[in-house]
Write a structure and sequence with these properties.
Elements: H1 2-24, H2 29-84
């Protein structure tokens, strides 16, 4: 009786400790698909935000470059005008 009781207690302790981990690890395929969908949505949002940020920076850099080029062109045109002006 004592051996049975000790074995039974050991078995019950094992089930008590390991049982919940087996139950918690089993997600349904439907829940897995939902989780994957949510993760994909969040990744798409992050990608969109990063793309927007880069596009703004690129746009500002292009605008700055265009203004700089226009200013240099204007300065060059003024030099040509000064050289060719008879006065």
């Amino acid at each position: 009786m004592r051996t049975f009781n000790r074995s039974f207690c050991s078995f019950m302790l094992f089930l008590g400790l390991m049982g919940p981990s087996f139950l918690a690890a089993q997600d349904s395929p439907k829940q897995d698909m939902k989780d994957a969908g949510h993760e994909t949505k969040e990744a798409a949002k992050d990608t969109g935000k990063a793309t927007k940020k880069v596009a703004k920076k690129t746009g500002r850099a292009v605008k700055k470059g265009v203004h700089k080029a226009a200013k240099k062109t204007e300065q060059g045109a003024q030099k040509v005008k000064d050289k060719t002006d008879p006065n």
